[in-house]
Amino acid sequence: MLTWLKVSGFKNLVDVDVRFGGFTCVAGADGVGKSNLFDAIRFLSAIAAGNPRGNQRLRLPNINKLEQLPDPKEILHGLLYEASGLTGRRLKQFSVHERVHRVSELIDDFSPLRALSAFQALEADIQQIIQEQGWCFTDRE
Q1: Which of 32, 45, 52, 103 fits 28 for a cystine, CB–CB 3.0-4.6 Å?
Q2: 19 contacts: CB under 8 Å, gap ≥ 6
Q3: 114 and 104, same structural domain?
């Protein structure tokens, strides 16, 4: 789920900083950029999927049902292949792993993922490794 978007220099959007909740209503006068905001979201989704022309959408599953899926990683890979819009030889050359990492780079707020038990386990494992390795940072004031 998209929780935050910061855009500047896209169409008529200048220094737009929007936080999204579970339900967000976008309203405003004509010409203020409501449609351009949605165009920016579609554009970023297309870039993340390796489809900069935006012909195909990245149809991510509902986060509330994610852990019920038999293989979420395989589903994400399939969705990225589909959203790339590529066929034939170009599809075979498509680096799905590179795109998975690109999607994760575009996430600024991981808080919706913290509701997933798998993400909680990942965070706990990382915290344990940091502690075991002595990588904890201290304030040097």
Answers
A1: 32
A2: 3, 4
A3: no
Give me the number of domains the chain comprises: 2
Domain span holding position 14: 4-63+74-108
**Pair (99, 89) in one structural domain:** yes
**SS3 state at 19:** strand
pLDDT in tens, the chain (141 residues): 678 888 887 788 888 888 887 778 888 888 888 888 888 887 777 677 666 555 556 677 777 787 888 888 888 888 888 877 788 898 889 888 888 887 777 776 777 788 888 888 988 998 889 888 888 765 554
The answer to the question of residue 68 being in a domain is no
Residue 36 CA to residue 15 CA, distance in Å, equals 13
- Does the model's pTM come out above 0.70? no
Give the tens place of pLDDT for each residue, 75-87.
888 888 887 778 8
CA-to-CA dists, residue 33 to 9, 44, 108, 116, angstroms: 12, 16, 23, 34
Indicate whether 87 and 39 sit together in one domain.
yes
Cα distance between residue 115 and residue 96, in whole Å? 26
